[in-house]
Amino acid sequence: MPTPSATHRFDEDFLKEVQQGSEQNLTRCYQCGNCTAGCPLSFAYDIPVNRLMRLLQAGEKHAVLSSKAIWLCASCETCTTRCPNEIDVARIMDVLRHMARREGLVAEPPVRHMWDAFLSSVEKYGRVFEAGMMANFVRRTGRFWTDADLAPVAIGKGKLGLRPHAIKHPDEVQRIFARFRDQR
């Protein structure tokens, strides 16, 4: 588990960027541990949520953005719900994923590939086209046979459409993605 080093320099700009991006006051966290205790995925994290919050407060940019925890977070908001200080921890994790991506610090590439495949599908079709998204994910990761046995079952139950769904006002979705690109 990363700890502040003796040569640590508090990165105030990093802390301000996270607080501004998430609209959360990180100084309100007093390390009670409720977020970690309730997190259904904490068993898989390299850094527990409350420890991640402490590293944020300490301005440990590299340790935080290099963490697998920010990529494995399911954004279920259990941490947010359990926080006695009403800190939206899930929102902070989302901001951290975006920051890590911009910095090129993606600790869990398959998660990033799934995210990219999902967003690509939504951008192209206006909503997720499951079969296309999975094909895109497989192409990006090279995981050709992972869960391949599930496709026929999902198709048979009508859970995996072979054609994209039509939506109303696809131009609205395009404007959202254009606005996102303009902000980068």
UniProtKB/TrEMBL annotation:
Q: Which PROSITE patterns match?
A: 4FE4S_FER_1, 4FE4S_FER_2
Q: Name one GO cellular component term.
A: plasma membrane
Q: Which species expresses this protein natively?
A: Desulfovibrio subterraneus
What is the designated name of this protein? Heterodisulfide reductase subunit C
Record GO terms (molecular function)? 4 iron, 4 sulfur cluster binding; metal ion binding; oxidoreductase activity
Q: Report which superkingdom the organism of origin falls in.
A: Bacteria
* Ranges of residues in domain 4Fe-4S ferredoxin-type: 20-50
Claim: Oxidoreductase is one of the keywords in the record: yes
Keyword Iron-sulfur attributed: yes
What Pfam families does its record include?
Fer4_8
Keywords attached to this entry: 4Fe-4S, Iron, Iron-sulfur, Metal-binding, Oxidoreductase
